[in-house]
Amino acid sequence: MATMTDPATLETLRAAVEAVAPATEGMPGATDLRSHEHVADMLDLGLPGITVMIAALLDAYAADVSPGTPFKDLSIEDRGRVFRAMSTDDSQDIRDAVDAIIVFGCGGMFSEWSGYDRSSGELKAPATWAAVGFHGPVHGHPDYRQDP
């Protein structure tokens, strides 16, 4: 699925997933793997247009951290402050927005989504699997089977 999210909203989501899962030594970050596109795809699949609202919420909470600065222009530390404020909000919907960014952002990193080449249709093991020592799915394990 190719994201239909507008570029400004996608840039805000990119900043959000970068704050959730930045690159580390030996491990690509969420933005390296375009996880923000996965976030946009999954959110819009569930509720078309919701990405625009979530980006607006991120910007609104950013104003409390650094007045006049959009979320995407905040430092990683300040983006974390925004997430902490949103995750403790009285509104379950606000907390769910943060949860969705985290779940779908990490999902874009560690699921087969990041190993799928949309132009060729080829599926390769994502780079993150090797980085965390995961060798891919196993369809049963002989040591756990009981002999009939």
Could you explain the architecture of this structure?
The protein is mainly α and 148 residues long. It has one domain. 53% of the residues lie in helices and 0% in strands. The protein is built from 6 helices and no strands. Helix 1 crosses helix 3, helix 1 packs across helix 4 (76-87) and helix 2 crosses helix 5 (92-110). The chain is elongated and about 60 Å long. The termini are far apart. The mean pLDDT is 89.
SSE inventory with pairings:
Elements: H1 7-20, H2 35-46, H3 50-65, H4 76-87, H5 92-110, H6 127-132
Helix pairs in contact: 1-2, 1-3, 1-4, 1-5, 2-5, 3-4
Any descriptors?
mainly alpha, 148 residues, 6 helices
Q: What's the end-to-end separation, in Å?
A: 44 Å
Count up the domains.
1
The major sheet is characterized as: none
Strand element count? 0
Indicate the proportion of strand residues: under 5%
Query: Any idea what the shape is?
Result: elongated
- Which class best fits the helix and strand makeup? mainly alpha
What does the average pLDDT come to?
Answer: 89
Rg for CA atoms:
18 Å
Measured as a percent range, the helix fraction is 40-55%
Low-confidence stretches: none
Number of helical runs? 6
In sequence order, what are the helices and strands, one letter per element?
A: HHHHHH
Summarize it.
This protein has 148 residues and is mainly alpha-helical.
